[in-house]
Structures are given as structure tokens and as C-alpha cells.
Structure prediction request, 562 residues.
Amino acid sequence: MNLGDDLYKEIILDNYKAKKYRRRMDDADISREGANPSCGDDIELFVRLNGDRIEEVTYDGAGCSICLASANMLCTALTGRTLGEARALFDQVRSMLTDADVPDFPEYASDLEAMQGVKAFPVRVKCAMLAWSTLKQVVDEHGAAVG
Amino acid sequence: MPSARTLPLNVSELRTEFPVLSRAMRGKRLAYLDSGATSLKPHSVLEAERAYYEQLSANIHRGVYEFSERATILYDEARTKAAGLINAAAAREVIFTRGTTESINLVGYSWGRKFLKPGDEILTSEFEHHSNIVVWQEVAKATGAVLRFFPLLPHAEGLDTEQLEAAFSERTRLVAITGMSNVTGYKPPIGRIAELAHERGAVVLVDGAQMACHEPVDVQALDIDFLAFSAHKMCGPTGIGVLYGRESLLEAMDPFLYGGDMIERVWKDRSTYAQLPEKFEAGTPHIAGAIGFGAACDFVQDVGLENVAAHERELLEYCVARAEARDDITIYGGTNTEDRGGIFSFNFADVHAHDVGMILDSHGVAVRAGFHCAQPLMRVLGVAGTTRASFYMYTDRSDIDALFDGLDAVRKIFL
Ligand SMILES: Cc1ncc(COP(=O)(O)O)c(C=O)c1O
Prediction:
């Protein structure tokens, strides 16, 4: 095993292959597309809200394993969470990937730590961030409306 | 005069001339399979650039002292060498630019916007790099000209040569076509296209970014009007390239950029412009780059571009044969190695090209993954991207073996 192979930790591959949340949602309150022009990742996020709580969040699209695993992890972590919690988690994921901060994720989101290795590969950070950046746009728009 | 080395290429000897090849990547032997993006640089090119900065450093043209005069001579010699490389009729038909992209833009602005009329047609292909499509989209927008595309064979294995002629119309004014696809290595029949174009009075621009570096090119024999190419893909520095233009066309065009060095006389309210090639070279050029490029022209001609083409062809055959022996690789552009340069585009099972590229990287294998600045072709192929291995004179079989060993690792992780 070396650095690159090591990045493909089981948690990441499991999330990539499981595709538990990889589906379109017909009754979504919000859907939002996000693309990464430099590498062709292209996803759509679907969110169903109940007040400021995320009842359900799913994704669909095409992308590399890092991008899609990250999207799946996002859905796993945020189902049932508030928009405020989503925003806080976004900040933590971003600082883990871009500022080299050691993350201190809440228990329900601890799987996200597996993404730490991506930091060593600057070109892949965008892939890991895509779902999160897309989510942030949703939160920025709807968090204000609800809050 | 450069003398061609004897066939076959002595690749292991050649490799010692490229300093990067002695470095490890991610702790592994470097298998550099990304020459389609940019080639490695040999000592002689690095030395030529360095010598200019160390021994002269002076600006060209205006100096009245020895070092400036010497720099001017070297700069002019580089132009003569570039002209010789493509057999231009005169050195003044060679304009130095920043590279292929700028060369095509120059033609777009100075020829396209001046001469194209509403309803005129620009004929191009879905094989083009974005630099040979986006420029023409903008020219079409500005002039009312229309973009048309040559029909392709199924699976983008090439242009449909039976329908070449039918793609032309009364209104075809320009054919903008690649000399070699940077995605599949496909080489359109440029000579035939130029013949058809000229029968109809159309002008032919060839994007030679992948062509001029991998095979001998003779602009007079091909009878083409413009050829754009970049030094950095043929052992030269980045930031310098060529627009070759037929003299009568360059004469009829307006300047592209305005300012110093491209003028003849300047009054308060008007100016007259310099002769070719200075007319198209405003401002201080990339002098060191041009001199390095001159050394690169010597280098590739010394190796012999026909030898390079033959060597790459052999590598491609080896690579395609190895890929065809497996069930996990989809090859793009067909398995025919005729009319193809040393480029091998593929996908590995249903694994995303970035994942493939990243695992290969960790094994010391440098490839490119993505849409290769060719989104229209990706749409024809029905994929978001591919992994691309591209070869050059210094590529050897162990590089290709490293690629396939790396793919075994991808298999272990993903399948
Ligand atoms: C076919 C083709 N055309 C144009 C270009 C653009 O060349 P440059 O980036 O040097 O301007 C490239 C480079 O990738 C290419 O492969």
C-alpha cells in the first residue's frame, strides 16, 4: 500500500459503492446542481425540508469515487439534521480539507474523517468538496428563509 | 545541418538527455505518459535558454550594442529554424506567438473578423481541441458566419472520408482542422482536405499542436494556409509557439496586437505598420523561449521526426495489443493504428478516469484524465472523460508496462 492506494480507504470505497443515497427525489423541496469543470464531476443534490430540519437528502450524477463517496457521506451525516448543523459541518469539512485543521466531528459524522487523506492531493480536494459546496448554497438560501 | 540519427531510435541513450526522466515520482520510476499535454525538455534546450540569460540578457531589435545584436541574431535564427522545420517558403511566414491557442486567435481576429461575411461557412470537426472551436464560435458570432462540422465515422474512429467533399458548400470560406486529435491520435487527411478547400477558394488552418511535434510536416507539400503549433509539445519551452501563414494572406490581414515593435512610423493620430513578421509581433517577445525553441527544432530534427513517428507507432501497437488482451479496457478511437499518432485514450471498466489517474500516479505513472479540452468529442464518445496515455521519442516499453501494472492495481481496488 502506498499513499495513493491508501487514500482509497474502505470507508470511502464503501460509500462509493453503496450508493445508498444515490437517487433522484421527485418530491424534493430543493434541488441544486454542482459541477467541477476542471474534472467533469457533475452532481445534483435533492433536499426535502421540514421547517429547518433536513428530512431527506439524496444525490445523483457522475463523478469520481471521491466526489460520489463524499456526497454519500454527506447524505448519511445530514439526514435528520438541521440546516444550522449542516452549515457547521460544512465549515468543518472545508477546514479539514483546505486548512489542514484536525477535524472534531460529532459522533454522527465521524466517518467524514476518512476524507482527511484527500488533503494530500490538492487536485482532488475540489472533488471531495463538490457536494458540500452545493449543500452550502442550499443552506445559504434556505437557512435564511427558515431561520 | 542536423543529420538524422540511424533507425531505430536509441531510446535509452535519448532518455539520458531529459533530466526529468532521472527523477522518481511518488518514490517510483517515472513513467511519463503525458507528452500530449507537454513534452519533457532536453539539456540542449535548457542550456540555450540559460545561455541567453547568462551571457546576453539584452533585448532585441533596437539595441546598438554587441549583446543586443547577438540576441537579435539568435532570435532570427530561431525563426529560420522553425521555418525549416515545417518547410515554410520564407522565414517571414513564421510568426512567434505564445502558442497554438494564441496563433489560432490571431487568425480569428486578423483574418476571420476581417474577411468572413454573414452566411459564410467555417468547416471544422468534433475532433478539435477547444482552442480550435471556441475561437470560431466567437468569430461566427461577430461576423454572422456559420460553423459546420465534417461527418464522423461511428465511434469517432475518424472523419467519414466518403463524405469529406459533401461537407463543403459554396459558402465554405475556412476549414479549421486538427492535424492530430489530442484525444485519440487520429490524423485527418490534411492534404486531401486542403485540395478540396482550395478548389472552392477556401482557406485551410491546421491545428498542428499534436502534429508538428510527432511527424515531419511540410506546409508547402500539404498546401495549407495556416499552421498553428506550440514549442512546449516538441521539447521546447512553454510560452512560445508559431503561427505559420501563407505570405499573401498574412499581408492582407490587419495586425493582431498593437504597440511597440510592430510599427513602421507613428504620428499623433495614426501609424503605419511594420513588414512581416514584425507586423504581428507587438512588444518584447519571449526571446529566451524563441532561442530555446530554436534549439528544440535542432533537437527534434537531429533525432528525426520520421523516426519519432515510427517509434510511437510501434509503442501504440504494443499498447493496443496489451489492452485488447484484457476485458476491462475500452479503447477510444478504434484499434486501428494506421493514421494514428502515439496517443492511447481509454476507460477502465466503469471506474472514473480520475480514480484511474490517481492510482496510476501513486505508481509513478503520469497520465491525463478528463475531457482533454475536447468536450464535443466526449459527447460523441458518450463519456464524461477518458484516461489518456501519450507517447514521445523517449517513451519506452517499460513505461507502457508500468501503465498496465498500475491498471492491475486499479482492478484490485475497484473491481
Ligand atoms: C490539438 C491541440 N490543439 C491546441 C492545443 C493548445 O495548445 P496550447 O495550450 O499550447 O496553446 C493543444 C494542447 O493541448 C492540443 O493538443
User: Anything to note?
Assistant: Chain B touches chain A through 20 residues (CB under 8 Å). Residues B 99-101, 129, 131-132, 178, 182, 207, 209-210, 230, 373 surround pyridoxal-5'-phosphate (CB under 6 Å).
